[in-house]
Every structure is written in structure tokens, then in C-alpha cells.
Amino acid sequence: CLWVRNLRLKRRLPGPFAWPVVGNALQLGQMPHITFSNLAKKYGDIYQIRLGCSDIVVLNGARVIRQALIEHSTEFAGRPNFVSFQLVSGGKSLTFTSYSKQWSIHRKIAQTTIRAFSTANSQTKKAFEHQIVAEVKELVGIFLKLSAQGQYFNPGHELTVAAANVICALCFGKRYGHDDPEFRALLHQVDQFGQTVGAGSLVDVMPWLQSFPNPVRSIFKSFKCLNEEFFEFVRSKVEEHRKTFDPKVIRDMSDAIIDAFNETDSVTELTKDYTEATVADLIGAGMDTVSTALHWILLLLAKHPDIQTKLQELIDKVVGRNRLPSVEDRPHLPYLDAFIYETMRFTSFVPVTIPHSTTTDVSINGLKIPKDTVVFINQWSVNHDPLKWKDPHIFNPSRFLDINDSLDRDITNNVMIFSAGKRRCIGDQIGKTQIFLFFAILLHQCSFEKCPDEDFSLNCSYGLTLKPLNYKITAKLRGELLKSG
Ligand code: HEM
User: Fold this and answer.
1) Which of 289, 290, 302 is nearest to 147 (CA)?
2) Pocket flag, ligand 1, residue 285 (CB < 6 Å)
3) ipTM for this model
4) Per residue in 192-242, pLDDT tens?
5) Among candidates 232, 245, 244, which has minimal Cα distance to 279?
6) Half-sphere exposure of residue 201: CA atoms within 13 angstroms, side-chain side
7) Helix (H, G, I), strand (E, B) or coil at 188
8) For residues 160 and 191, what is the distance between their CA atoms, to the nearest angstrom?
9) CA quadruple 176, 179, 185, 188: dihedral sign
10) Whose CA is nearest to atom 6 of ligand 1?
């Protein structure tokens, strides 16, 4: 029974003393991933904490995390049955449902759809690239307007719109203006979403907080509303698609997903009701992550002007000033990829994955973890593991280059931001392509400078993604604005 299991868990795993009622919730602090890493120094890379009424196992360090997610991939592939997870897309989200045969087929449908509209063949690759280039060009124009007469601005909103437009264009064949009120409201919802599903959110581990007025209950209520509104936005777009759907002409990802779920799978019962949830999964996951990466990239470029100049010199040498950088230039611009990997490692902007759970009893490093245990996976600790990285707290893109200044794949493979194993992100390739193109074109066209009045710290807000707190930059045009791709 659960009680005996919990008792076994209590006996076998090390961890800090847990207070009655709240457990260790008050000790997590503003940045739980840093607290988790500090606790690992005392209790080892696998330990247990208690949040409210849930015992949670926290995994830290490259060796233990890869061992769990890769060698015991099925055992660690579950998701907890948190109340907040059940609210996402009417409980039909592939991201927030647990491991099962049905989930595995659902995930394959989403993977096939992403591939069909990005990397399937040279034509789709070009169409995808074209979409991104159009967005970056518009973004450059907006940045320059916001920088008129040397003004400083925060690029957050514009980056979110640009990244969201790429995934909306793929899903709905439609993009939105940067000032569109409907789109602004949608983006605000996605931003709030991450604050509730990030590891350490109290909504799920203290369900009794829902029974009387308190800040956690109001967060939970607004989480419910924002999920309903976001799902309604997606549902209305899919409905429009259904009206004009023709299986012979698949226009975008929504059409492809409608087509995939048109016939119910008799074994898994994946019905048409899963269509909207799948589209919502792709939009939700694709918006917040890519824009956050770009946000950090701009901050770090402005903070390190010497590195920015070196990157621009390299782009000018490889691409020249008469055309924009393209995906084909990527193998010749290893220092750009090194900068992207170092941004992902250094900021670890998805510090802890979406919470996992164990699908069976499992033993790791001689420690027994029972079935249905909630597991937090501290990606930040992998990227700052002193056994893997020299001076992990220093931002140094060159650590990814070998003696020939080529990208060292053995080292880039040590970065963990897309997780690993059965739950690994399915948008990693399209995410990386987007980040590379935005970054290369923005740098080719503009220089970014920080506001001299600001201390320009790396302060950020915690959630599923870490977002830089308000900082301001200005963009300066480098030479002539290029219109053609
Ligand atoms: C899951 C990172 C972009 C789709 C995840 C997870 C992480 C992640 C850490 C959780 C894995 C786990 O729980 O172990 C990122 C980063 C991105 C990115 C850093 C960009 C830089 C995207 C894009 C898409 C996408 C562009 C799709 C359009 C998904 C989906 C899942 C997921 C569907 C759920 C997988 C599952 O539960 O089986 N991502 N992601 N992601 N991501 Fe991404």
C-alpha cells in the first residue's frame, strides 16, 4: 500500500528534515534549482524532499541524471497526476499525461507532424527557413524603431511575438502583428502557465490550499482560467480548419493533426478529441522556450561586447554584407553555435524539467525509489557539474571549440536543456534552427548595447523557464538594412 511504500522511501533515501504540513516548501527559496544543487552537496546526487503531502526525489549531476533517464528510461518516463496537469488541454495533453501505450502513439503523431513541416525534405526545410527569416526581418525593423535617437528598450515582448509567430505560422498558416490584442492576451497566458507547472510550484503538492482563500488558491484559479482561454483559442482555430479541410491538400500542422486523428485508433482510443490538445502542445511548448533563449542571447551579447564583435567579424567573413545568413552557413559559423550552447549551459533557462514520476519500483545507485514517486530532474546541476565543466560559473563560449576552432560535439553533448530519454523534447531540432537563424540575422544586421545606467545583472524570474528580469538595450544598424534573403 501507499503508506508502506512511503515508509520505505523515507527509510532508504537521504534528505533534509521535513517540517509537518509544509515539508521543505519554505526552504526552496527563489531559485529552487540552486537549492537542489546545494542540498546535493550535503545528501548526495539522489535525495528526497517533502513538499506539502508529496515525497519527491530530486536527481542531480550529469552521471545520475543520464543513468536515470537513459539507462532506466521507461522507469522514469511517467508524469505525476498533479491536479494542474489534468487541467491542461482537458487532460489530453501529451506533455502532461503519464507514460502509456496511448501516450507513446500520441507522441509519435506529434513528432511526425513536426518533421513533416520542418526537416522532412529540402522543400519543407526551405519553407520553414523562409518563415523564420520573414519574422527576423520584421523584428530588426521593430528593434531599430524602438532604438530611434539612441533609446533603450526591453526586447522581451517583441521576441515572444516573433517566436510565437513562427510556431503559429506552422500550425495555422497565420501570423499576427506585434500589437494584435488577441495575440498579446494569448502570449500573456503562456507566460503565466510556466510559473505554475515549474518544479516546486505549491499548487499541486498542497491540494488542501484550495479549500480556503490564500495566494496559492488564487494562482490555481487563474491557472484554470488561462488554460481554458488558451485551449479555446486553439479550438476555434482548429474548428476553422475543419470547415475547409481537404485530406488531399494538407496546408499546415493543424491539417496534418486533423488528418492523423480522423480515424480513431482502435487499440489506444486516440479519438478526434486529441486534435486540439496536440496543436496546443506544440504551440505552448514552442512559444515560451525559443523566445526565452533569444532573450538571454541578447542580454549576453550586450553584456559581452568583445564577444559580440568577434561573432560579427566571423559572420562578415563567412557571409559577407550582401546577403543574410542562412541555415547553410551554419557549419561555417561554429563560434555562433558555441555561443548558443554556452547560453543554454550557463543560463540553463529550463532549470528543472517538467516533473517526472516513476512508472515502476526502480533501483538507482543502490537506492530504491518506489513506483509513482514524483521526480524532479535538475538540468541546471548537469550544466554546472564541476566534474564536467571547468569554471562552470564563467560565461565562455570558446569552451565548445576544439583546437581547430570547430564545434566539439563531445562537449556540446554534455549540455542538458532538452532533457533526455523517453520524455526528451520533440522540438529540439526546430528550436535550435530557429535560435540559430534569429541570432545570426540579428547580429548581421544590428549591434546591441546595454543601457549604461543599469547594473545589468543576470537576475531572473523562476518558473518552467528562467526569464531575465527587466533590462534595456539599444540596437544600432550595421551598414545597410538588407531586405532580401
Ligand atoms: C518537452 C525544452 C522547444 C515540444 C520539453 C522538456 C524540456 C524542453 C526541458 C521537458 C522534458 C522532460 O520533462 O523531461 C525545450 C527547449 C526548447 C524547446 C529548451 C527550445 C529552445 C520546443 C519546441 C517544441 C517543443 C519548438 C514544438 C514545437 C515539446 C513537447 C514536449 C517538450 C511536445 C513534451 C514531451 C513529452 O512529454 O513527451 N521541452 N523545448 N519544444 N517539448 Fe520542448
Assistant:
1) 302
2) yes
3) 0.99
4) 777 776 666 666 776 666 666 666 677 778 888 888 888 998 999 999 999
5) 232
6) 27
7) helix
8) 9
9) positive
10) 425
